[in-house]
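Ticket #81: bound-state structure for zinc ion.
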Amino acid sequence: MLQLRPNCECCDRDLPADTHDALICSFECTFCRDCADQRLSGICPNCGGELVQRPRRPANTLAQFPASKQRIHSATGCSPS
Ligand SMILES: [Zn+2]
Ligand SMILES: [Zn+2]
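RESOLUTION: The complex was predicted; output attached.
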């Protein structure tokens, strides 16, 4: 199950479970669309994998399968290595 992390790892923007603007890589590194497009060129800076839109979890399942509340923010997460 996806963690649905609550924020962008790069700019720390909130990314709710129902947003269209969250992108993830296969390791669930999570970024907002602005960072993914403008700073990262669609590539995860942590693992080099592609960033794709995170599927939204239907609201009626969030009570049973809640999104992660653990914020992950990396000051260096934005810079492609
Ligand atoms: Zn961001
Ligand atoms: Zn990654």
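RESOLUTION NOTES: The beta strands are 22-24, 30-32, 52-53.
TICKET STATUS: resolved
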